[in-house]
Specification:
Elements: H1 9-18, H2 26-33, H3 37-49, E1 69-77, H4 82-94, E2 98-103, E3 110-116, H5 119-132, E4 136-143
Antiparallel strand pairs: 1-3, 1-4, 2-3
Length: 158
Amino acid sequence: MTRLAQIDGFDRKLLAIVQHDADTPTDILAERVGLSASAVLRRLKRLKADGVILANVATVDPLRVGKPTFFVVALEIERERPELLGRLRQWLNADAHVQEVFYVTGSADFILIVAAPDVESYDALMSRLIADNPNVRRFTTNVALGVGKRSLAIPIDL
């Protein structure tokens, strides 16, 4: 089980800022949180080492790179045996089009966010998913007509 990291108010302020702009210069971060630049660097290094900060990534504008279509997919599975779930999770994690995977309660077992260049590519992906994972009972798809907000930022209580 993952342990909670020991983070204080300074760490929380840093996390709130870098989630929205990881390129914020250290001197600006130091000024905003009330620490020295070297203290900020040490804290960021510790937060990465502790697994609080998983990655520094760039958010890409989908309209400028080919305008993918976003699909929200609800998967239902036959059996929830650990080895079958593990294989499905590995398959989903290995495909670059599958952006997010949520194991959920309710009528679906998984909710996926998929970005594909077009409907044909999405259909081919789902055909491979069903062929490679016979434990998938069925899936339903919602096509995003527009994107009002995209974010992976976790709200941080300050």
